[in-house]
């Protein structure tokens, strides 16, 4: 599996350079080398990260920085959001071992995958979790939930490494892969704009929650690029049809 592309690790709003370096260190331990940062608190690069990385310089030298989670996962097709907190979203929840199996299967089919981690204090926002295709939760002892960022990344990276090592040397079927998250986000925004125009989001104070649930629901479907195009065509046709109905009603009212 020399051509297997490992998951990207995305850190949302990391606060300490030492933690970024520690994450790079454990990524290198288990064969992950693509690290993305979303709005690091102290900017990037940071010298202390290199000191904490203990020689995993190639991971830090390849770091990419983004302004939002949506932008950071835009080119990926399967993303697991790491969180220990229960959420109101109906996003599938997996252990790191289960998630590693799904990531491995997707990567073997030529898909681009990722693991998304929240900041050290606040974790991930629900709106960002809703953009992922799944949640990964580490089954730690409920008597002590505290787990630092590098530990969380290490556990998931280890499960990936073991999954790759234990896999039989077979060939994967290369069916049409799921759409990248950039295409999905465009589809979400297209649908939400038309739903706004149609008065779907009511009452207004529940709009954010309704949007998050819609995105989580659609993310579970794993749309292909063709399916995204088809779905957007459906949205366009419905909106166009509504416009014609409204125009006819306006004509009758004017007459």
What's the short version?
Helix content is 48%, strand content 11%. With 255 residues, it is α/β, with parallel strands linked by helices. It has a seven-stranded parallel β-sheet.
Fold topology:
Layout (H helix, E strand, L loop, with lengths): L7 E5 L4 H13 L5 E4 L8 H6 L4 H5 L2 E3 L2 H4 L5 E5 L10 E2 L1 H13 L4 E5 L8 H4 L4 E3 L12 H18 L14 H17 L9 H13 L5 H30 L1
Parallel strand pairs: 1-2, 1-6, 2-3, 4-6, 4-7, 5-7
Any key phrases for this structure?
48% helix; 7 strands; Alpha/beta knot; 2 domains
Describe this structure as you would to a colleague:
The chain contains ten helices and seven strands. It has helices spanning 17-29, 47-52, 57-61, 69-72, 96-108, 126-129, 149-166, 181-197, 207-219, 225-254; strands at residues 8-12, 35-38, 64-66, 78-82, 93-94, 113-117, 134-136. It has a seven-stranded parallel β-sheet. The mean pLDDT is 89.
CATH class of the largest domain: Alpha Beta
- What characteristic shape results from the CA principal axes? elongated
Question: What is the CATH architecture assignment of the largest domain?
Answer: 3-Layer(aba) Sandwich
Taking pLDDT < 50 over at least 5 consecutive residues as the criterion, the unreliable ranges are none
> What class do helices, strands and sheet pairing give?
alpha/beta
Strand order of the largest sheet: 3-2-1-6-4-7-5
List how many beta strands DSSP finds.
7
Give the terminus-to-terminus CA distance.
71 Å
Tally of contiguous helical segments:
10
Sheet-strand content, in percent, reads 5-15%
Based on CA atoms alone, the radius of gyration comes out at: 21 Å
């Amino acid at each position: 599996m020399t051509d297997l592309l490992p998951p990207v690790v995305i850190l949302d709003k990391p606060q300490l350079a030492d933690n970024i370096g520690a994450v790079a260190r454990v990524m290198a331990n288990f064969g992950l080398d693509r690290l993305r940062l979303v709005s690091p608190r102290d900017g990037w690069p940071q010298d202390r990260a290199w000191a904490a990385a203990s020689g995993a310089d190639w991971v830090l030298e390849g770091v990419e920085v983004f302004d939002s989670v949506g932008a950071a996962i835009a080119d990926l097709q399967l993303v697991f959001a790491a969180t220990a907190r229960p959420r109101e979203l109906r996003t599938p929840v997996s252990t790191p071992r289960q998630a590693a199996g799904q990531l491995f299967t997707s990567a073997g089919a030529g898909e681009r995958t990722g693991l998304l981690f929240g900041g050290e204090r606040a974790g991930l926002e629900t709106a960002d979790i809703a953009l992922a295709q799944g949640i990964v939760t580490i089954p730690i002892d409920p008597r002590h939930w505290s787990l630092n960022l590098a530990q969380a990344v290490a556990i998931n990276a280890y499960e990936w490494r073991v999954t790759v090592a234990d896999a039989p040397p077979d060939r994967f079927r290369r069916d049409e892969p799921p759409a990248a998250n950039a295409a999905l986000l465009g589809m979400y925004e297209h649908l939400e704009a038309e739903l706004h125009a149609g008065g779907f989001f009511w009452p207004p104070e529940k709009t954010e929650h309704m949007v998050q649930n819609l995105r989580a629901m659609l993310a579970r479907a794993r749309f292909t690029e063709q399916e995204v195009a088809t779905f957007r065509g459906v949205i366009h046709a419905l909106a166009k049809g509504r416009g014609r109905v409204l125009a006819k009603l306006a004509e009758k009212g004017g007459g």
